[in-house]
Amino acid sequence: xxxxxxxxxxxxxxxxxxxxxxxxxxxxxxxxxxxxxxxxxxxxxxxxxxxxxxxxxxxxxxxxxxxxxxxxxxxxxxxxxxxxxxxxxxxxxxxxxxxxxxxxxxxxxxxxxxxxxxxxxxxxxxxxxxxxxxxxxxxxxxxxxxxxxxxxxxxxxxxxxxxxxxxxxxxxxxxxxxxxxxxxxxxxxxxxxxxxxxx
Length: 199
Description:
Blueprint: E1 3-7, E2 13-17, H1 18-31, H2 36-43, H3 47-54, H4 62-72, H5 76-80, E3 107-111, E4 121-128, E5 145-159, E6 162-167, E7 171-175, E8 180-184, E9 190-197
Antiparallel strand pairs: 1-2, 3-4, 4-9, 5-6, 5-7, 5-8, 5-9
Keywords: DNA-binding
GO molecular function: DNA binding; DNA-binding transcription factor activity
Domain HTH cro/C1-type: 25-79
């Protein structure tokens, strides 16, 4: 394992793992289906330097890493955060947070996993606001497919112009590009396990 201490303003310092950075950049490049030469050309660096960076064999200026990250369309903060991509993501209940409630949305979201940058699924709990406090009327769309499981309560699923009553234990799977909306049926609200699935 190769590490390098990088000094930043006011002589604060942090340690980064060059192998982790390299692995992330390589994974992002392979995901984007670009060759090392293509990315090197975009960044104005040599292919051999990019290869060494990907293999954790050399350190590089943050400016260079920023250019590579931009060429790969990934955040520099993700490249530098020091956490490798892993097959297992454990998120204890106490560490999960609800999104800020928004009365215009009619529900709040609870992300169930700090997913990989390249994961194709996103599991979420949707907390549907009780009927008397839910003013949401407009359906919405998104690019992912969506699978839902009613964990608690009941809803009406508005989907593509039709309404479907769903209660605890019911499931559904639909295209997110069609207009849809979760509508409460009573003042108990509802809790829905939602899994967004990228194509």
